[in-house]
Amino acid sequence: MPVIRLYYRYLEKLVGTDRETILANLPMIGSDIERVEEDHVDVEFFPSRPDLFSVEGVARAMRGYLGIETGLPRYSVTPSGIEFSVDPGLATIRPYLGSAVIRNVKLDEESILSLMGLQEALHWAVGRGRSKVAIGIHDLDAVTPPFRYIAAEKSRAFVPLDFDREMTLDQILDEHPKGRAYAHIVSDFPRYPLIVDARDRVLSFPPIINGELTRVTQETRNLLLDTTGTDERAVATAVYIICTALADTGATVQSVTIGGRECPSLAPSERIVSSDDASALLGVPLDSTALSSLLEKMRYDAGPAGVSHVRVLIPCYRADIMHDWDIFEDAAIAYGYGTFDAEMPRTFTVGAPHPVMAIYAVAREVMSGLGFQEVLPFTLTNERVLATKMQRPLKDSVLRVMHPISEEQTVVRTDLLPLLLEMCQLNRHRELPQRLYAVGDVVGGTQTYPRAACVSTHAAADFSEAYAVADAFCRELDVAVSVEESDDPAFIPGRRGNLVSGGKTVGVFGEIHPAVLNAWELEHPVAAVEIDLTAVPGYPGQQGTP
After folding, report:
1. How far apart are CA 69 and CA 328, in angstroms?
2. Long-range Cβ contacts of 483-487 (<8 Å, 24+ apart)
3. CB under 8 Å to 106, separation ≥6 — which residues?
4. How far, in Å, CA of 292 to CA of 315, rounded?
5. Residue 384: which residues within 8 A CB-CB, separation 6 or more?
6. Which helix (DSSP H) or strand (DSSP E) does residue 462 occupy?
7. Count of helices and strands (H, E) across the chain
8. Could you count the other beta carbons within 10 Å of the beta carbon of residue 212?
């Protein structure tokens, strides 16, 4: 989760109270305070609340929670007369565009840091590392409207931010730090997205880097915002959050015409909720008037709509409100978690470890004793990680995500070993040897299976090390195994073996194939083991847990 830096002077100015009051109440609105320094505090908010990823957003919420300014913030939008055209050739590349003009901004060092911090936090939380949404903020007075969002030739050149020379788009991907970091998002396309002005000057190469031409400084007074991406709702969310944050500092928001449509509209959405449902969920008596009062503190416009219902106007920047219960959670925050009456649970049970968790605990103890360090790879991954880079066919039983949020999370993991190699790739710059392990569930079809895997990478890693680790691990977990020749293509022929127990292959070990090492950009040999923990004596029930 992103850590947001809040400077006291700027925060006190926007909230209208002292830092002691703010610090005492920050945890009550859903933040973890990481560090308290002399001139600032670092806080962490959940990814579900990207509107709080700036000083302006936190100040807005805090004013409501403290009762300084309650109810719905009202934002007016006037037409700017500026137009933005979108090239049809972007339909299969990066089709969605959002924009706005923000005038009369007053930027100092702290407000610029807040704005840039908000931009990067949104890239992470809403943009999924810029693949879903990328944000550009420009000095409007440095360019000439109307603007065009085009699919450009790779040979097109401009001066990127923080450089003093022109570079082609391909050169930017190869040489600029931001280009190298985000090249994977666009490198496979025949053309690249580009934003240019009426004089054909480049403002931005989304999602990579802005042009030096439109650098924002403390002298900037008028901004042009562009957000591009592959998800229309996420693009709009980023626009809403940035526009409202700047409007809270006194700036004026103006709309831009995109394909005949004015963007943005900062109007709220409406929902009718039941105060009876809120009372049942929270365990406190709330009529429609009491619920309305609580929601006003959380910056909604709320009022009774009958005896047991409340009409709620939801701010445009609250993209996290998807269910009535999300609103009731805000009511609980406004009520105060510390004011709920504590009571003992109505049922009493005696806890005991699940048998599978007991096996995991032993596996962890053994792996740690063998000198390996535990890592926790993600449950969701993709076909390239599980199959392509491993030289393995994708298993027929792979469970696919119906609506993946990105190309990186499209399936549920079927093995742990590929994810450990991915971890080695991410830590190539760390010292050797690296000896990592993971235990956890993998999924085949609709069944889950417990697995353990480990990798060891250093100059002398080989088959003998993998064999020794596999033998020690199975012996300590009392798994009787024999070794047979393996045909797993992820390993070097002649330096690989299957672990067989009860006539069934329950694991594999050996030295990773050079082609797999190259796919993971690893320079040193890797010895690896993976074993199915259903073979451990005492595993409960049938293999596979629904």
Report:
1. 20
2. 486/510
3. 221, 249, 250, 251
4. 15
5. none
6. none
7. 15, 27
8. 17
Token look-up 């990478």 returns 457
Cα–Cα distance between 264 and 54 in angstroms, integer? 20
Cα–Cα distance for residue pair 272/275, rounded to 1 Å: 10
What's CA 447's distance to the chain center, in Å?
A: 27
Residue 169 burial (10 A CB sphere; 0-12, 13-18, 19+): buried
| Rounded CA separation 469/456 (Å) | 10
The Cα–Cα gap between 507 and 505 comes to: 6
- Integer Cα distance of 461 and 472 in angstroms: 17
DSSP string, 194-227: EEE-TT--EEEETTTEEBGGG---TT---EEEEE
Which pair of tokens denotes residue 397? Answer: 């039983």
Q: Digits of tens for pLDDT over the chain (546 positions)?
A: 678 889 999 999 999 999 999 999 999 988 889 999 998 999 998 888 999 999 999 999 999 999 999 999 999 999 999 999 999 999 999 999 999 999 999 888 888 888 888 998 899 888 888 999 999 999 999 999 999 999 999 999 999 998 989 999 999 999 999 999 999 999 999 999 999 999 999 999 999 999 999 999 989 999 999 999 999 999 999 999 999 999 999 999 999 999 889 999 999 999 999 999 999 999 999 999 999 999 999 999 999 998 899 999 999 999 899 999 999 999 999 999 888 888 888 888 888 888 889 999 999 999 999 999 999 999 999 999 999 999 999 888 899 988 887 788 899 999 999 999 999 999 888 889 999 999 999 998 888 999 999 999 999 999 999 999 999 999 999 999 999 999 999 999 999 999 999 889 999 999 999 999 999 999 999 999 999 999 998 888 655 554
Identity at 517, one-letter amino acid code: L
- H or E, element range at 331: helix 324-335
φ, ψ dihedrals at 318, nearest 5°? -90, 70
Measured between alpha carbons, how far is 526 from 457 in angstroms, rounded to an integer?
Answer: 4
Core vs surface per residue 360-398: b (16+ CB within 10 A) or e: bebbbebbeebebeebebeebbbebbbbebbebeeeeeb
Tokens 């980023």 identify what position? 238
Tokens encoding 84? 């933005």
Query: Residue 506: which H helix or E strand, with range?
Result: strand 504-512
Tell me if residue 124 falls in helix, strand or coil: helix
**pTM beyond 0.90:** no
